[in-house]
Every structure is written in C-alpha cells, then in structure tokens.
Amino acid sequence: MRVKVLSRNPSDYARETKADIHRIQRNVDPVLHPLEGAREYQRALNAAKLERVFAKPFVGSLSGHTDGVYCMAKHPSVLSCLVSGSCDGEIRVWNLSRQQCMLAFTAHSGFVRGVSLNTSGTTIISVGDDQCIKYWPLETSQLTFSQKLPTSTIMGKTVFTGIDHHWSKPLFATCSSQVDIWDESRTEPVHSLVWGADGVSSVRFNPIERNVLASTGSDRSIALYDIRGVSPLRKVVLDMRSNSVAWNPMEAFNFTVANEDSNLYTFDMRRLDQALCVHMDHVGAVLDCDYAPTGREFVSGGFDRTIRIFPFDQGHSREVYHTKRMQRVFCVKWTGDSKFVLSGSDETNIRLWKAQASEKLGSLAPRQRASLDYNNKLKEKYKEHPLVRRIIRHRHVPKLVYKQGKEKKIMLLSRKRKEENVRQHSKPDRLPPRTPERRKHIVSVVA
Amino acid sequence: MSDMEHSSSSESEKEDREEPSIDKYRRGDKLKNLDHVWDRKLKSRLKHFEDRREKAAISAAKAELLLPEEPGFLEADGLEKTYKFSQKEIAEAVDIASAQKQFDLHLDKFGPYRISYTRNGRHLVIGGARGHIATIDWAAKRLGCEVNVQETVRDVQYLHNETMFAVAQKKYLYIYDNNGVEIHCVRKQMDVNRLDFLPYHFLLVTVNNYGELRYQDVSTGSFVAEYKTKKGPCDVMGHNPYNAIVLLGHHNGVVSMWSPNSGAPLVKMLCHRGPVKAVAVDREGLYLATSGLDGMMKIWDIRTYKLMYKYNTRSPAGNLCFSQRGLLAAGQGSYVNIWRDVHREKHKMPYMKHHLLHSGVSDLEFCPFEDVLGVGHGRGFSSLLVPGAGEPNFDALESNPYQTKKQRQEGEVKALLEKIPPELISLDPQQINKMDGASKDVLLQETLDEMQKEEKFDPQHKTRGRSSSLRTYRRKQTHIAEKLRELKRKKMLARQKESREEQSSGKRTALDRFVRKTH
C-alpha cells in the first residue's frame, strides 16, 4: 500500500525572526474564493465611501494681495514658482512649496491685466491698465532681485488686456484691440494681426505647434493665427463671448475655450465647424481654464464661485471645489507636476487644491500603493451600479449653485421637449433638422 | 538520450497539467466575436480587456508551480483494495505527526455527539446530547473550554472564528465564548434542531421543530428573515458554499432550497420515497448528495437538478459530508463509508470504510485543509485519517490555519467590512455582474408601474401665511396633475413607437400608398 497523508511543517508557515513580516500563503484558485462578485461589489462600495471620507482637497491659501487676483503665470522650469497679478497693480512672486510670498512690488497703476515669463524664466513681463508693458528681472535661485524697478517699459497706444509668451522664441503676444507680436529686444510690435474684433480679451500660444496662437475676441469669435504668415488662419464665431483659451499640451490641434454661456467647448483646430466636446456643468460664466500637463483633464473657474475639473473628452465635471470664502474665480492654473490646482479669486486669495481630492500625498509604501490601485480599479469596474454610482458622484455644492443647476436642467429639458413636440407634429417634408449639441452653439466659421 | 526523453515527457506532462487548469482561472467564456461592435473606441477597449484577462489567467495558472503542498493519496498495490485498510494500518504507515491526527475520545456518559470545526480547521467543538460541551485545539490536543449546560444539546456550530460558537439547546439558542462563558441567550430561536453558518454573510441559519427557518445576522444580532416552511418539523439542513443557498430535507422526500429574499423555497426537488435523512453539497456547488429512509443515496447535478447516480445502501445514511477535494463520507449506523469521485461514475465499493464499535454515527464533518474526518458518535468522538480529503494549499487571506492572534483580529475586521448583504443571495452568485436581461417593453412597463404607484405627497408647510388650506390643496393637485401628464406622455410615446415598428415591419401591398402616414 502507498499512502501519504497531508502533513505540513509548521515552521514553513511561520516567520523566521521577530523582525520579519508574517508569511502569507496564497492560492488564487477561484474555488477557494467563492461569491467573488458580491464580495468585490461590497469592496467597491467601501472603496467609494472611503474615497469620499478622505476627500480633503484644500491644501492652503496664499494670501497677501490686497485686491482681487486677476492673472497668474507659471514659471517654465521651476515647479514651485508662481507669479500673480492683482487688481491694484501689485505683482507677487510665490514659493508654492513653502506657501510664502517671495517678492511683492507695485507694477502698474490700475489692474495688472496679464503676466508672463520668458522661456528661461529670468524675466517677468507684465501688462496693465496704464497701457504699459514692463519687464522685471527675476533671479530664480533666490527668487529676488536687486532693484525694484523694471528693466524696461514700453508705452502702448491702448490698454492691453492679455499677454502670452512664445514657448521657445524670444517673442510674446499681447492683445488689446488687435493682437500684437513683440520681440523682447524691440519697442515696436513685429506684427499686428487684426481681424474684425473691437477688442481681443485673451491670447494663447500653442505649446506644441509653437507658431500657432489663438485669441478670443469681443465679437464672440475665436481666431487662430500663425505668426509665420501675414494673415490670420481662420475664425469660429460662437453664440456668446469666450473669456479664455487653453491649448491641450498633449494633442497639438485641440484647444478648449471658456465661454460666457457657462459651457466650455473643446475644438479641433482643423475642423472648427463642430466642437469635439461641450462641457456643461458651471452655472455662471466660465472665466478661465487651464489644462493639466497630462492633457487628460482641465480645470475651469467661473463666475459661480466654483472651480471644476473636467476630463478632456467628457461633458460633465468629475470634481467641484468651492469654499464660502472663495468669491468669483478670475484665474485658474494647473501646476506642472499635475498634482495641484491653483485658483485666484476676487477676494485676494490664491488657493491651492489637490487635483485628486482623496489622494494621499508623499511617498507611499508599496502595499499602500497596491491597495489604493486595487480600490481605484474596483471603483472603475463597478461605477455603473446604482448604489456605487450614487456615492462616487456625490458632491456637496453651495445652495445657490445647486438650485441654479436644477433650474438649468429643467430649462434645458423643457427646451428639448419642445423641440421633440415640434418634430412630432410637423409634416414629414418640413421636419426641422436635428443638430447635435456640438454644432448648436456655433454660428459660423470664417476662413 | 533517455534523460531528454524523460524531460520532454515531463514537460508535456506539465503542459497537459497546465492546459486544463487555465480554464478554471478564466472565469467565463472569452468574447469571441467583436464584429458587431460599431464603436471603434469601445471595440479596442474590449479587445485590450480580453487580452489582459487571458494574460491574468495564464499567469495564475503558472503560479500553481509555487504551491508548496501536494494532496494526499491512498493506493492499493496488486490485489489489495483501498477499503480494506484500517485506520490502524494507515496510522502505522504514515509519519508520526500525521499518525497523531488519528485519535478517539471515549466519552460514554453524555450521549451522541454533534461536532463543528472552525473555518480554518484548527479548533473543534463537540456537544453531547446530555449537555457536555467542549472546545479543543485538536491538533495540539489542547482543551479550550469544557462546560456542562445541564440541558439537551441538539447541535453546535462555530461562528466566524474560534472565539464564538452557537449551541442549540433544549429550549433556546445560546452563544458562548471560547472560554465557555455564555454571551447570548437568543429567546426568539425556540426548539432549534439544526444550525448552519454562512461565513461571508455572517448569517446563522436555524431550523426548528415547528418547521421555521430563521436567518440571523450574528454581527448585529438582527433577524434578517423568518419563514415557515409549512412542512412540519425539520432536522436536515445543509448549505451550498458556492452560492450560500440553504437546503432543507423534509419528511415527504422533498429537498427545498431557500434564500433569505423569498418566503417560498426557490427550488423544490422530490428526491426520495420517504423522509430525507441527510443532504450535502460539494464545495464548488456542482453536486448534491442526498440520502433517505428508503435506503437510497442519490447524487444529483445541482445546476440542472438531474439525477446522476443512485446507490442502494441497505441501511439509510443518516449523515453525509463532502470534503474539500470531493470525497463523500456517509454515516450508516455504526459504519462510515467514504466514496471518491462520486460524480465521475457509479462505484461498486467505497474508497474507505470504518466501523465504530458499539456506537452509531451522529455527526460527520471533514476537517478543512487536513486529511482528517471527524466523527461524532454515541460514545464520543473519533478522528479518522482519510488520505486525499483536504485541500493542500490554503489561502491565508481566506482562512489561515497558522494565524496569529493579530491576524485573527485583523481578519475579523476585514471580514466584517466585506460582509455581503443578504439581498445578494441568489441561485446565481454572479448575478450582480450581469446585465438585466429583460426586454425593453418589460423595462418600460416597470417604469410606468413605478410612476403609477400612489405615493403620499405631503405638501410642505410654508411660513408667513402661505400655507392656507386652499393653497395646500392646489399645490397637491398640481403635483398629481404633473405626474399624470408625464405618465400619459410616456404611454403615448410608447404606443407611437409600437405602431411605427408595426408599420415598418409589415409587408407592403399595393394599397399601402393610400394609408395616411403618421410618424
């Protein structure tokens, strides 16, 4: 007879010394793990709840300005440096890791309409209500400078409303009643690009196709220019004015505009007759937007005192941040390490928020990371189940935003119903055409 | 040359061993045909998902190499038969540590014993019918606690770990600590005959002399469900570990399957021509073994409810138990017969036999993760060696026989966090992951029914004199009118869609051009 009875050596299953961790014997045979579906569902529910428990996105606020923060600029190479300009003409340079102001000086009399840094980050270029462009030197290592006077000042003919620097060349663009391209060493613009608008409110260079720039005009248009050519490229007219443009840093031809009708529109530069996506969630005018360095998400700040984070291809926001103290958000930025979001608002504070509200900052142990990855995957897998979905989507918003959101929904629904009824009751040869939402808000495309 | 041949044959053996095992890690069929998916992004995502699933299955199958233990076996040479070997012979042929697992406890005075093992197989509780209760760490032969409750004990059951066990005593159900201290006396459970525990739901299932089935959540103590089986007293109970369905055997030969979500049994199977004496389901939820007073032992495929094999055991088997590796133990009077591979073919003789002198089997349970069968009988308890019964490789995150105190505490907390709500118990355990298979009309009808349900609408009491009775009445009527309008609209749309579909599907005749088009 041949016989063997299962006998385990207990020392194989015990740890060798007290300093070791305990041994966990694994067997992934599904027979040993019954009721997998229900258990995973329960874990997904717990993961969603824990995410909401740990969602504490507010990191800190940078206070110091004495009037609303109007514009911000990121340093091209130093992650922790931020330059902000306020409505009383003051410019401040901040160190984000210490949350401290490094430099503060009065730059303009009147609003500081735009700040920008050159490609090496050694000069701050600012424009303001006093029709001047001013250059300020910046020593990045110590974030100081020796003299509190601009190295040079250029007087312009009209009030400048925005500025943006080229990503590699020593050129920058300003906008007033037209778009001017300046060279850093000259006092007269190199080009002037005019196309019909009375005023241009913002201008942005494309980070990938660096010779292309987009501008938003007061004639509700968004115009695209190429600085190599003399004439502008093309223009798309929407039904309401756009406040700001942001280019996608990963996809060369896509850009997003923040519009007054509380929507954001993502366009493909090559095909302006139809938006790629309409992002609807704000209840007031959207004042600024900025993309994450990954190109997968962007942040927008609006007149309704909230900032929202949208995925680049989806129509609704995944996150909304608000505080009682934060009033109208004038400018938003996404930091260069793609982990934080900055918002500059009317009540003189710049707030620093986490991009992922329940993210654990700092270095994580490998087991922690594995556990968080597992929880994220579970939430992704079960996100359509009603109970899990309800918890994942739950966000508290201020009462006004909630009520206005509901009203907006009712209004849109009733408009839709009316259109449907018109279609139901009109003759077949006179059916009104169905326009997709992406085309509805576009008035015309001008080449 | 012979070495190469040997290695290649062993490789092909390994491949043979690997090939079938990938199937068990796949958890369902592959998505073969993706041609009908129009959306290109969705198609690429599905393809990517399928690739990763396949890779996961292959790497899980490869990880089988890392498993340290091999299952036990008992093989007879030549003319010998495996059922001729006695426990004594096996204990002599095996190493000392395993031989110590074969022992008898002679407890004559306190009547037939009911037994229960913990989930990880370390601890054992035995309860004699005359009131003797003892918990033992049976491998180390260490007594945990010993108590005489001075009352009839009908059944004992360990709860989620060794710290708590439930005892069905003469009148009520009691829950004890691992020190023998009585923690709870549950007066609502009266005259309980049989106990069972669903570990992932923390549900204690009881059936009593009045034929009432109760599900109690032991983490909160609340009663999840109480149903009257209306079939008289019941003392045959088992559960299906694959989907947590409870099976009861009744006096008319019917085996019924219950879940806490419905007051009527989900399935009723007529199994025997007399009362059902025992019921057991294997670990994977594929096979059901039943035995009745008519002397038959039947093996059923529980997924199709079809009879597979029937054995005519002259004396009825009063106890049945499946081991983790599919061995079936049947207790017939003073004999214990162990059958192997009952699902594959009808065997003429069992795998092993054991005869208890002067006593009859009152309870059988295989110890998890060990090659041991525990037998409670009229004169105490016996632990028998059954090579090949236990699962050799456990998963420490499920149940760990070598757990430390800290691991036990953490495990308890984790298990409570992942406790499955009883609403998810159904015949198909994967139902939570499946799409609602109902057709569009059924779904529409359901939404219409929901809307039609009369909900009590209480208009909000407004301040500053705006809540006069007339205004409140008007507000209520507007709400009702809006609901009705929505309902009518939906019904109209549904009817229009139906008529459109009818028209488009109908054949065109010559007279069709005179039909006025509605769209």
Structure description:
The complex is a heterodimer of chains A (447) and B (519). Chain A has 447 residues and is an alpha+beta fold. Chain A has helices at 36-53, 366-381, 386-393, 399-424, 437-440; strands at residues 2-4, 58-63, 69-74, 81-86, 90-95, 100-106, 112-117, 123-128, 132-137, 152-155, 162-165, 171-175, 179-183, 191-193, 200-205, 212-217, 221-226, 234-238, 242-247, 254-259, 263-268, 277-280, 286-291, 297-302, 307-311, 319-321, 329-334, 340-345, 349-354, 442-446. Chain A is built from five helices and 30 strands. In chain A, a hairpin with a 7-residue loop joins strand 13 (179-183) and strand 14 (191-193). The relative contact order of chain A is 0.11. In chain B, strands 2-29-28-27 form a four-stranded antiparallel sheet. In chain B, strands 3-4-5-6 form a four-stranded antiparallel sheet, with no helix packed on it. In chain B, helix 1 packs across helix 2 and helix 6 packs antiparallel against helix 7. Chain B is α+β, with helices and mostly antiparallel strands. The relative contact order of chain B is 0.08. In chain B, strand 17 and strand 18 form a beta hairpin. At the A-B interface, strand 1 and helix 1 of A face strand 1 and helix 3 of B. Strand 1 of chain A pairs antiparallel with strand 1 (73-75) of chain B.
In a few lines, what is going on in this structure?
The complex is a heterodimer of chains A (447) and B (519). Chain A is an alpha+beta fold.
